[in-house]
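Risk register update: the risk of archive-format incompatibility is retired. Evidence:
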Amino acid sequence: MTNRLLLTATTLLCAFTGSLYGCGNTAKNDPANSTQNSTQTMTQNTSSDTSKHLETAIFAGGCFWGVQYYFEKAKGVVNTVVGYTGGHITNPSYEQVCSHISGHYEAIKVTYDPTVTNYEAMAKLFFDIHDPSQTDGQGPDIGQQYMSVVFYADDNQKQIAQNLINQLTKKGMKVATQLIPATIFYPAENYHQHHYDHEGTTPYCHHYVDKFN
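Archived output:
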């Protein structure tokens, strides 16, 4: 994804490496497959009269296109925005992030209704849709900006994420996901938002696997 003009070539690479990285079409138990269009509409519009009751979560798990594809369809999610966080340049561009001069990660900011879902459910979905054991990126997308990170807002979020990591560790997984305090989140350029919805395709390097049951 370093050069999205080469997405087609990358997709072909995924076709050959799908068994290793989990690229390609979504799994049969993918919760996004059964989500109705009304839920998708809800994820893109935050109701002003309920916004004061909403909570947020920030995750980085590889190409933010694929991460958004799953979160925008999740129960209780009312808005998702892909962007950049964790770096040291104000309002970075996509080119600066890809060149590794800004120190940012490709991330997603999820806004959800705590009366419908909770942070643990959001964090579980995050771990279920990517490979948290990969240390150098996600699938064929290699680089610091594609690494797995939970950007926690407070100690409660940090503890929930750590508990989930502990559960995966007990199952034998070597989890590489970092836990980093949340900093400024910069929304990405408009053409990155809801990419797969606009293209009518599915993620090339993310797929859903229930890792906790």
